[in-house]
Design goal:
Largest sheet: none
Distance between the termini: 47 Å
Helix content: over 70%
Radius of gyration: 22 Å
Number of domains: 1
Order of helices and strands: HHHHHHHHHHHHHHHHHHHHH
Strand content: under 5%
Structural class: mainly alpha
Number of helices: 21
């Protein structure tokens, strides 16, 4: 076998292991280590296993991942974001599907203090779904809205997906954060449009909530979201104005969230312990997968398979638009079976050389990739956010009902993806201004 054939065989073995439900981190590490052993010998394989993890983990930018995770877990466990839905509900409950719209806006606010779609869906699911069901909202609309709204968590910065992509693709994380704002807001508006249109055409889906809330009460509800506003202003105001870097922003965000929790007297030992443990567990699992992906990049480079694929695409003169459509289909299929970080780190070592050869802007692609992966969070049969909502709501709705509810938002996502591909300035507008 030639080196390139060994590379292709490695990809086939990797996909087979994933199909057999092998943990993706284990599959990446074992296939890459075995492939390098076959290509270069035992010493080279052990040498790569020693050097690649160290070089990856030594990246200074990577330190922002546990810091942003810690910020999100502090906010979640200390209840710093619990006023988001209440404030949105008081102001929006009278509009068509007002509680569902409030859930989308609440999730968007929560997304600004955490980089996790799962955390976003779980937090809003506990708060918003019971409130909608109590007001006789359709179960599919209530649960589908929150499952879909959770995907905004990875688009509006901070985003763990964007941080990992920026490190692997060598793209400035601050530019990715700026670029993600446009895609995140467009997604939010598209979800609101779906809710308003559906509930206007079929009012039985969301009976009007008759709630006489005085203006002072509404203003008090707005005042309760000051922790989120302070975090956004402190972290992203400093980041986008150039006061500190994206790496430093994570540490500042984690520290600021702890200070706010102390001021609100909600930082107990239990909250601190839970936030630290969940940060450690999540960071460890992410790093194992990321190290496996880095080792796969080394294997693909040594085999020449990645470069050969790039040459084939370049020889065909593939149009970047056609290339992006093909990549979109790949990620939509992968999203049905893999969680987002695993799907991203599995494919980037193969796709990055092809994209660079085709002259695709790496910042624009990073946001598009994040959107592709988040669509996978609500596609059957594995849509992770759907199962998160199911675990939260219990017997209030079946898994089939939740999947039925998210289908309308999947249509909106396809429209958004099309807009982002046809009009890339939606993504590149803010990086162009602050670049």
């Amino acid at each position: 076998m030639t080196h390139a054939q060994i590379g292709y065989a490695g990809i086939a073995v990797l996909l087979a292991l994933i199909a057999l439900r092998t943990p993706i981190g284990v599959a990446l590490l074992s296939v890459s280590f075995g492939g390098i052993w076959i290509l270069m010998g035992e010493k080279a394989a052990w040498g790569a296993l020693g050097v690649v993890p160290y070089n990856f983990a030594a990246s200074w930018q990577l330190s922002s991942v546990p810091m942003f995770l810690l910020m999100g877990f502090f906010c979640f466990h200390a209840g710093l974001t619990k006023g988001l839905f209440d404030a949105a509900r008081m102001w929006l409950s009278r509009m068509p599907g007002g509680l569902a719209v409030a859930a989308v806006l609440g999730a968007s606010g929560f997304a600004a203090v955490t980089g996790s779609s799962v955390a976003c869906a779980a937090a809003m699911g506990r708060i918003a779904v019971p409130e909608m069901m109590r007001n006789r909202y359709d179960a599919g609309l209530a649960t589908g809205t929150v499952a879909a709204a959770g995907t905004i968590g990875a688009l509006i910065p901070p985003s763990i997906l964007m941080i990992l992509y920026g490190i692997i693709a060598q793209v400035p994380i601050s530019k990715l954060f700026l670029a993600g704002v446009g895609a995140g807001l467009l997604t939010m508006l598209s979800y609101v449009a779906v809710i308003v249109i559906r509930t206007t055409l079929n009012p039985a889906l969301a009976p009007k909530v008759i709630e006489d809330v005085s203006l002072p009460a509404r203003m008090r509800a707005l005042a309760e979201i000051w922790p989120v506003l302070l975090l956004i202003a402190g972290v992203f105001g400093g980041l986008f104005s150039g006061v500190f870097s994206a790496t430093e922003a994570g540490a500042i965000g984690a520290s600021l969230s702890m200070v706010i929790a102390i001021l609100k007297r909600s930082l107990t030992w239990e909250v601190l312990k839970n936030a630290l443990i969940e940060t450690l567990l999540t960071s460890a699992s992410l790093f194992i997968i990321a190290i496996g992906a880095s080792l796969l990049s080394r294997f693909m480079a040594l085999s020449g398979a990645g470069g050969q694929l790039a040459s084939v695409v370049n020889g065909f003169g593939a149009d970047p638009l056609l290339l992006m459509i093909g990549i979109a289909l790949i990620y939509l299929v992968l999203g049905m079976f893999l969680e987002p970080i695993g799907a991203m780190l599995l494919t980037l070592p193969i796709l990055l050389p092809i994209l660079k050869t085709a002259g695709v802007d790496m910042v624009w692609f990073g946001i598009l990739l994040t959107k592709f992966l988040e669509v996978g969070m609500i596609t059957p049969p594995i849509g992770l956010n759907v199962f998160v909502i199911k675990s939260v709501v219990g017997d209030l709705a079946s898994t089939g009902t939740i999947f039925r509810g998210v289908m309308w938002f999947l249509v909106a996502d396809l429209v958004v993806v099309t807009m982002l591909i046809v009009w890339p300035q939606i993504i590149m507008f803010l990086p162009g201004i602050f670049g």
